[in-house]
Amino acid sequence: MSFIEYGDTIKDGDTAIVFLGHESMFPVKVQHGTVTQTKYGVIRHSMDLIGKKYGSKVTCSKGGWVFILHPTPELWTMNLPHRTQILYSTDISIITMMLELKPGSIVCESGTGSGSLSHALIRTVAPTGHLYTVEFHQQRAEKAREEFREHGVEHLVTVTNQDVCKNGFGVSNIADAVFLDIPSPWEAIGHAKAALKAEGGRICSFSPCIEQVQRTCLAMEEYGFTEINTLEILLRVYNVRTISLQIPDLGKAAEDNSIAGFDSSNPSNQGSPCTNLQQGTVQFKSGVPQKEMVGHTGYLTFATKSLF
């Protein structure tokens, strides 16, 4: 199994996503002889998963059913075990675009954290690119290596356990882009410049506090980076629902004209909003924002390495 080479059949040792609904899903490692408990009952890996096709509808022991999905970076971001705070698809999408990543790109990243962005970067630069990711915490670095191996992408990523602010990325003049998600990114700007190709490249720094952004921008200017800009991405989700609005009172003449122009016995008018005239309301489909929305996550600062 690989997160970048999609297969049709579920195999022993695969990582699969058990989908109960849009707000309820979780990852599971498929193993012969193992069972997984859900609110709909038990899933037996040997009988219900292995050999079935991804996307299959699986009936659980209590009669309920789930879908088994092939993992993608997007699904993994929503379901991965959190070892640190992670980046979500909203920020990831703008990062991959603004860093101008494509198949074959070489990317340096610090820190690895829970690997949310890492999986998306690997998928973007595959099959000929490479990700060099640096993680300060030894246990997190080892866990990231293990996950990349289980997910079939270890040949596209090199995980290094060191302090990027002191020791850099371990590579020089090969990267097309650098991404920083560390507490003091201004201390790593010099190492980021050294990792980028001599002919230039892009850098992005993610910071939750504006004071971090200010110091990072000053460091970027000091090291000769240009086109420095900072942005923040906010996601607002809308729910589509049916709402009822009261028909305005426009006077008796308007009411007579409205009723005269509408024939409720005409089959073509069945289901029309006007069918509610006698009740004094009319129904519409409307997009309504959710009462709660994801707020500030962090600031993204982008810059370009100058050739001079």
From TrEMBL:
Species assigned in the record: Anas zonorhyncha
Catalysis performed (reactions): adenosine(58) in tRNA + S-adenosyl-L-methionine = N(1)-methyladenosine(58) in tRNA + S-adenosyl-L-homocysteine + H(+); an adenosine in mRNA + S-adenosyl-L-methionine = an N(1)-methyladenosine in mRNA + S-adenosyl-L-homocysteine + H(+)
Superkingdom field: Eukaryota
EC number: 2.1.1.220
All residue ranges annotated as the tRNA (adenine(58)-N(1))-methyltransferase catalytic subunit TRM61 C-terminal domain in the record: 64-305
Keyword terms of this UniProt record: Acetylation, Methyltransferase, Nucleus, S-adenosyl-L-methionine, Transferase, tRNA processing
Function: Catalytic subunit of tRNA (adenine-N(1)-)-methyltransferase, which catalyzes the formation of N(1)-methyladenine at position 58 (m1A58) in initiator methionyl-tRNA. Catalytic subunit of mRNA N(1)-methyltransferase complex, which mediates methylation of adenosine residues at the N(1) position of a small subset of mRNAs: N(1) methylation takes place in tRNA T-loop-like structures of mRNAs and is only present at low stoichiometries.
Known partners and oligomeric status: Heterotetramer; composed of two copies of TRMT6 and two copies of TRMT61A.
Binding-site positions, S-adenosyl-L-methionine: 114-117, 135, 163, 181
Subcellular location: Nucleus
Pfam families attached to this UniProt entry: GCD14 (PF08704)
The protein's name: tRNA (adenine(58)-N(1))-methyltransferase catalytic subunit TRMT61A
Gene Ontology CC terms, in alphabetical order: nucleus; tRNA (m1A) methyltransferase complex
Protein family (similarity comment): Belongs to the class I-like SAM-binding methyltransferase superfamily. TRM61 family.
Key word GTP-binding present: no
One GO BP: tRNA methylation
Molecular function via GO: tRNA (adenine(58)-N1)-methyltransferase activity
